[in-house]
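Students often ask why we bother predicting the structure of a whole assembly rather than each chain alone. The short answer is interfaces. A chain on its own may look different once its partners are present, and contacts between molecules only exist in the joint model. In this exercise we take two input lines together and write out one structure for the complete complex. Read the inputs first and try to guess which parts will touch.
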Amino acid sequence: MTINERQDEVIEEFEMFEDWMDKYEYLISLGKELPLIEEAKKIEENIIKGCQSRVWLAADMNDSKIQFTADSDAIITKGIISLMIRVLTDSSPKEIMKSELYFIDKVGLKEHLSPTRSNGLVSMVKQMKMYAIAYSSKV
Amino acid sequence: MKKFNVNDIRKDFPILSREVNGKPLVYLDNGATSQKPQVVIDAINSYYSHDNANIHRGVHTLSQVATTAYEEARKKIQHWINAELSEEVLFTKGTTDGVNIISNAWGRFHLQKGDEVIITEMEHHSNIVPWQMICDERQAKLKVIPVNDAGELQMKEYKKMLSAKTKMVALVHISNTLGTINPVKEIIKLAHEAGAKALVDGAQQVAHAAPNVRDLNADFYVFGLHKMFGPTGVGILYGKKELLDEIPPYQGGGDMIKTVTFEKTTYNELPHKFEAGTPNISAGIATAAAVDYIASLNWDEIHVHEQELLNYATTELKKIKGLKIIGEASEKASVVSFIVQGVHAYDLGVIVDKMGIAVRTGHHCTQPLMNRFGIQGTIRASFAFYNTKEEVDVLIAALNRAIKMLV
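Now the answer. The structure tokens for the assembled complex follow.
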């Protein structure tokens, strides 16, 4: 599946939710289910510091595709991370580099990516693309 | 003086009747900024609609009208804080700007290698970083008064720290994170006895009572207008005249000069010496409206109302399982910070926002204080006089609902 196909899939899922409660309950459940980053990768150099919550992000290359793992101390942040990983992981560096994450806006979670939220998510998206750039030079 | 009635007062603030996310707004983030009464909004509107002109320059009528209004605002602040002279009241961009002016202008002039500046563990970053910077530059030492588990300053430690090396004691009047009201009068007295000067960060104080700078005997007292129901982008630096006179200006530009040649510039008198450039005139003028509004209120009754809100909120919050109040000083303003075991502050903040409630989450720009308590951040509800007990009930219900979702 391409990144955009995955984004469209997420958008379709969110269309089922009638109100914010449903949406956030889903995000919270995603947050709780997110496979944890290996403890060995939960280190200072993988931390993305936000004003409000902390995010850990690691990337590995497997069969010329990038695999992301991440964690956060806040569960809603974790739920959104889970969506981002689902959309971006297992893609080629080139695809990640040129991707545009329109699904966040479409599912009504744009406020979480505004710089004022300072939850580390904006920096996380940047960091995911940085990994893609770094790995693309190795391919 | 009119009797205080919270429902009447609320009508003065148009924003309080709006909805957020489909729910009536419950604004409990007054520690970050307060809402504005209609009279302040009108003053800004009226200035731009009728009187807009640059001040202290023009001979034309509009410029004179604007200058008079601006200087009137300065006098109103002077009386409100009980300063002796109007030229001791300087307009700034805000609290942070006030601290930076003193740390730079006063610090660079007075601090020598080996001198000491004392701050406290509960300072906002705005009253830490400027002092760190100037201490680095002047090779002076920064010392920190610790707080106890209740969130009160350890006065014994402070007394031990004071010496002939102490040149400045800079501290917060009311902690933005804990709500602790510090014994600033006593702290200033001790600083003076050691031969040091004292600067007080009054950012939170001004929302709860007028600071009496002469009674406190503060050398410098800084605050912003936006936390006292006035406009953003304007603040006040009060300083004793003899102290402001002896230090050189901090920024160069228009308004602060007397004569300029390429060989030599002579500086203007106080207060203009520290007011380089065109200021935030509309906000300065609207300051007068804010002070008039505040002065018209019954502050004895407001104080009782705010303490009732604090006590009620504290009691009700403590009923929530796993909730811990951070900051239980015996003297507290209407600010309550808390954490809930197993729940991140950010998550709670996001969920209660969906229910129309504005609270602050995070470290509140007091990271060293968070480290002191071994936590990442708190949720903070900060009450103004226009908040109600019913709003506390809405907060408690929302928190219970959010915790149920998150745990």
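Check your guess against this: Chain B has a mean pLDDT of 96.
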